[in-house]
Amino acid sequence: MKLSLVATLYRSAEFVVEFHLRISQAAQQLVGDDYEIVFVNDGSPDSSLELAAQLSEVDYHVVVVDLSRNFGHHHAMMTGLRHARGERVFLIDSDLEEDPAWLLSFSEQMEREKVDVVYGVQKQRKGKYFERWTGRLFYKLFRFLSGLEVPDNIVVARLMSRRYVDALTQHDERELFMAGLWVITGFEQRAQFIIKRSRDETTYTLRKKVAQLVNSITAFSSAPLVGIFGVGCAIFLLSAIYTCFLVINWLFLGSPPSGYTSLMASIWLLGGLVIAFVGVVGIYLAKVYSEVKHRPNTIVRNIYRQTGGRSVE
C-alpha cells in the first residue's frame, strides 16, 4: 500500500464526512486507489464513531480503530500510526483546521528534497493574543529546559516515510509528548509553512495546556531536578555565610542575633521551597511509577471495516 492517512476523532462529528471527502480526493489525486484512511476514535462522546463506522461500510479504504475510552490525543495518534500500513503515512487532525490538500504540497516537497518527513509550521499562531502568547512561552520553556529544537507553532499535519514511522513507533513510553518524539526520532525532516484555519472553540482548556507543559518538560528534561540541586547548594552557601556572620557578631561585638520578622520570613521561604521541590521530585517519581507498571498505552475495543462486521482485538 502506497499511502496511509491517519486522523483521530474526538468531538469530530460535524467534520467527519467533509474530512473524508476532502482527504479522499487528495489521496486519489496523489496515489490513485492505493491508500487507506485510518480513523482512531479516542472515546468521542458524540456521534463521531457512528459516522466513521458508516463510512467504513461504503468505502473500503476506511478503517476505524475504536478505543475503549478516551486515552488522549497523543496516545490516539500513536495508535493510529501503529495501525498504518502504507509506504508513506500522512498524519493530520480531522477538525479541518488543517487542510487535507496539504498532502499534495507535502508530497511534492518530500520528493524534491529527498527527506523522510515534511511537517507543517504556522507562520503565525492561530487564535487570540493569549493563545499566541502562551504558545510562544510553551515552546521557549520547552526548548530551554529540554535542549530539543522543537519549532515554534508546529502542527500535527506531517507526511512521513515508512522507515521513520517504524522508528517513531518503537517508543513505548506511557507519558507521550509527540512533538518531542518527532524530534528525537531523527532522520531528515523539513518544515513547510502553512496557514491553519481557526475555530472559536477548542478541546484544549487552560488546565490541559498547563498539564501538557508539565508533562512535556518532565518527559524530556531533568533540568528541574538539576535546578533543585543548584538552588539547594546556593541556599546552603548563603546560610553558611550568614551563620558565620552571626557567630562573629556575637563573639566580637557582643550583640546577639534578634529579629522575629526575619526569622519567620526565612522559615516561610525555606518551607515553601522545600514543599515546591518535593512536588517536583514527586512528579518525576509519578512518571517512574507510571512507566514501571507498563500498562498499555491504549486499548482497542473494535476495528470497523467495510465488511459491516466488527473484529475485536
TrEMBL record:
GO annotation, cellular component aspect: plasma membrane
Keywords from the UniProt entry: Glycosyltransferase, Membrane, Transferase, Transmembrane, Transmembrane helix
TM stretches of this protein: 225-253, 265-286
Domain Glycosyltransferase 2-like: 27-167
Main location: membrane
SUPFAM superfamilies per record: Nucleotide-diphospho-sugar transferases
Presence of keyword Thylakoid: no
Pfam families from the UniProt entry: Glycos_transf_2
EC numbers: 2.4.1.-
GO molecular function, one term: glycosyltransferase activity
Protein name listed in UniProt: Glycosyltransferase
